[in-house]
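for the recovery benchmark. tokens below, seq after
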């Protein structure tokens, strides 16, 4: 699938003179995936594609957040490494264990396109979970916040400098509403049914072999089929529009220089 350069797909971030904006295409790699046996998680194409499906906003000031379980704003303690600078963002805006970053720009998407604002994909954090929002960035004339909910009272939760705290993903406003959900019997698609049967049987046999203790020790991890990564159907044909990675553009300034 080609990208039409002539279409209006500008995704703009309007920043003030004093704003600190660190926004980059989301990275593909995750430490926890690399550390799985034989980096087995890195063979999961759905995970890898989701990892880089958006742009990251990265934290500017390292800090530790601790919540005592109460509903008030001051029930969250934020300790910044560079507290001598008088850092005020992020902060406790809403209470209830919620830490909030003020997004340092006004985003603009093309007409009819919203902005899904979420946590970085497949990057779990013990004691905190990212709250998602959908913002009408084709018309809104205000900034918004990115929020994380602390989930374990008394547990210090660390956010490092340069760590992504938000992931922004443009999304057509009526994309989901256009779909007409339907449930059909698998037998109504006999070719698909047969291919699913073949895949299920092959997967069953692979699991029997792969999870035998002596086999895992021999090959350093479970056996990997790899057909989905290659974009190969059960009959050996290849799906022509198969993709194995994203190639998102970096934000550029008005003079055309790329972001740092």
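predicted aa per position
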């Amino acid at each position: 699938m080609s990208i039409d350069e002539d279409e209006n797909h500008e995704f703009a971030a309007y920043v003030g003179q004093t704003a600190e904006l660190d926004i980059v295409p989301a990275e593909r790699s995750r430490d926890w995936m690399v550390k799985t046996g034989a980096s087995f998680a890195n063979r999961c194409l759905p995970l890898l594609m989701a990892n880089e499906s958006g742009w990251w906003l990265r934290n500017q000031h390292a800090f530790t957040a601790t919540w005592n379980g109460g509903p008030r704003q001051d029930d969250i303690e934020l300790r910044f490494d560079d507290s001598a600078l008088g850092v005020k963002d992020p902060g406790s805006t809403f209470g209830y264990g919620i830490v909030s970053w003020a997004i340092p720009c006004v985003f603009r998407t093309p007409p009819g396109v919203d902005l899904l604002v979420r946590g970085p994909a497949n990057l779990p954090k013990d004691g905190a979970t990212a709250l998602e929002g959908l913002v009408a960035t084709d018309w809104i004339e205000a900034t918004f916040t990115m929020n994380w909910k602390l989930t374990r009272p008394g547990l210090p939760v660390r956010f490092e400098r340069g760590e992504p705290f938000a992931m922004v993903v443009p999304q057509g406003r009526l994309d989901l509403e256009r779909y007409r959900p339907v449930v059909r019997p698998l037998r109504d698609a006999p070719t698909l049914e047969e291919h699913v049967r073949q895949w299920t049987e092959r997967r069953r046999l692979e699991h029997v072999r792969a999870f035998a203790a002596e086999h895992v020790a021999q090959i350093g991890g479970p056996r990997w089929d790899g057909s989905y990564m290659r974009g190969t159907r059960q009959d050996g044909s290849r799906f022509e529009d198969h993709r194995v990675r994203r190639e998102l553009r970096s934000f550029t300034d008005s003079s055309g220089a790329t972001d740092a």
